[in-house]
Amino acid sequence: MAKLLYVDIVSAIESEIVNGKLTEGSKLLSERELALQFHVSRNVVREAIKVLREKGFVDIQVGRGVFVKKPEPKLVSESLERVLDTSITGMEEILEVREVLELAIIKRVARQATEEDISELKNIFQEMESKKFHVNEFVELDAKFHLQLAKATKNNVFNILSTSFSELSNKSIQLTIYNPMSVNIAQEQHWQLIEAIEKRDEILGEKVMRSHIDDARKDIQILKKHMEEQQEDGRKNSINYDR
């Protein structure tokens, strides 16, 4: 029974941190106050706080209390990695969620991006232009571009989710077929996103982002076909060898 109680408390406090009700640096209620709020013993509260600390959500300061920490994107990413993988199915699932996230981000950024935000996006774009033929560096800069979009929302949850999915997406991108044509198309779309933001055009930004995600989806399908062909060739070679 106690286990179920502390899990409920952990879940409730986590939710308040993620949705912004409890912000970084906020002090949690005392053990006594939390025990009264959740109608549990102080031992149950202590167990919940211990779990929250282990998960990186709070910091216990002796003599001062328990304070909220900024959720670590790496922890979120590791949690996602436990349920997703870099198989084709995993890549498709990652992209599906990324689409929802990126569309929400671009609409918000088109409304409220500052000149400084736009300038930073242009700087990253220029860096990407110089690294078109350096796969790993280009992929890292691509992630940096999309993280800058998330940063421009001024929304901490978008930042956390984007950083988490960025780590997963990078692994997926490195597995897809990389060619100069796809890079040029991606760069054209990146510039169109910047233009949409400058024009404060949410509709254009959403349209370009959909095309960007659709192209990524096509790359995954090409990889899927390529892997299936390799498997079929391997099966045929195995049959011929057995003969």
UniProtKB/TrEMBL annotation:
Gene Ontology molecular function terms on file: DNA binding; DNA-binding transcription factor activity
Keyword Ribosomal protein: no
Stretches assigned to coiled coil: none
Record PROSITE patterns: HTH_GNTR
Domain of life: Bacteria
Residue span(s) of domain HTH gntR-type: 3-71
InterPro entries (UniProt xref): GntR_C, TF_FadR/GntR_C, Tscrpt_reg_HTH_GntR, WH-like_DNA-bd_sf, WH_DNA-bd_sf
Swiss-Prot/TrEMBL keywords: DNA-binding, Transcription, Transcription regulation
Name of the protein: FadR family transcriptional regulator
Top-level taxonomy: Bacteria, Bacillati, Bacillota, Bacilli, Bacillales
